[in-house]
Amino acid sequence: MKIALAGIGKIARDQHVPAIAGSSDWDLGATVSRSGSVEGVPSFTSLAEMFEAHPEVEVVSLCMPPKPRFDYAAEVIRAGRHVMLEKPPGATLSECHILRDMAAAAGVSIYATWHSRQAAQVAAAKAWLAERALRHVTVIWKEDVRRWHPGQDWVFEAGGLGVFDPGINGLSILTEILPDPVHLRSAELLVPENRQAPIAARLAFHHTGGAQISAEFDWRQEGEELWTIEVETEDGAIRLSEGGASLHIDGKEVAQVDGAANDGEYPQLYSQMAMLVREGRSEMDLRPLALVADAFLLGERRVVAPFEF
Ligand code: NAP
User: What is the pTM of this model?
Assistant: First the structure.
């Protein structure tokens, strides 16, 4: 199937272009970007021009930041094409609901991707937790924003999500692996005095079974990043680390099993998109974004030192 990529920036180049090139499902037919392009692929600055020149493009994968994404997604759906969304699927929950309804009415597939859920050991962690009673869950997502978002001021603008841009990856895994739903109880947002969005956050969740669940996100981490979820149950404990790539059960490392889980996060997202299109289905799990929205609703704001890249 012919696919077009829109928003040719860091993640498009790092992950989407290689994942599409390595897939037998997809052929990159065009790019749409105001300034970026991919060598050897026809490039356009608007979706309308691209569809005019390449009516055979069936799917558009959107890689721009969340705030401008809605207008692009709505245009793709109105053009009767399927649409794939980078995480987070939008800047607000209500726009995501509208896109989901538009796609259903137009009979096209929409896929809100969560790349971290495709990490190698996430499915194993979910299976291990399925029958167990939770006691404590701690999510730690700490990384250096200068390393992962060099010079990207949009991440600190309103709608850029701040530290929730990586933190939502932890929440996407949390909502995938826990056997029970959780909701936010309280939040603390640390916002640099010269920015709109938090550079760090602490969250506490309510769990129906009474487990203590918390999350800590920090973009001021220097050195190695920490992308870890620790779960203590009544029957053992697990540690999912390296963003879901590594799993320890009761302190013992679990070997990765051969299979699709080892193909890489983005190749699996593109396989899933191919399946959704073939089966005429959509996937739009908005739980991670709902938790982030609730953190902004409930969060107490603390002003911290200014931040410059
Ligand atoms: P980026 O490089 O700053 O932006 C991607 C591209 O989006 C830009 O090159 C730009 O292309 C386009 N763009 C920017 N602002 C726009 C606007 N107002 N209107 C239309 N297009 C605009 O960002 P990124 O790091 O690739 O992140 C993009 C998305 O991927 C985010 O949702 C992020 O959470 C997600 N993501 C990022 C990473 C990562 O490591 N950076 C990892 C996983 C997921 P043109 O100027 O050429 O149009």
Answer: 0.97
